[in-house]
Every structure is written in C-alpha cells, then in structure tokens.
Amino acid sequence: MGLDNLLYEDARKEFSLSAMTGFGADGNHQECLMDFEQVRGIFESNKFVSAVKKHIEEKNQLGDELLSRITHLAD
What we know:
3 helices, mainly alpha, rod-shaped, about 80 residues, single chain
C-alpha cells in the first residue's frame, strides 16, 4: 500500500501550485487556474488519479477479505 500512496501523492504534485508555472502567465490567479484546468484537468477527476484510488480501494477490500478468512481459520 505504501507504493500506491506514493503514486497518489506524486500525482497530486502534478496539480500543485508550482506545477502551474507558465499557465495563464499574462492573466490573474483565476485565469491561471482556469488555463491549468483546461490543459491538465481537475485532480479529483483525472483518469490516472481515479485509477490509483480505485486500485487502493480494491486492494484494501481484498486485504480485509483475506484477514476475515484467516480469522475464521483460527477459530
């Protein structure tokens, strides 16, 4: 799970303020954000980010299921 979380946090960096350098350079902050979103999209709805989140959720569910099975074996 550690690697998955690192992937998620790395993807977040791609949407940080420092990654917005050069977007909307001739406008105000709002225009910079709009320009960035038109090119990169929104973090929460990014396909890669969604896939990583889904993978983490599925992996957690599988881990919970396996722990449940092991617990029943010990009874």
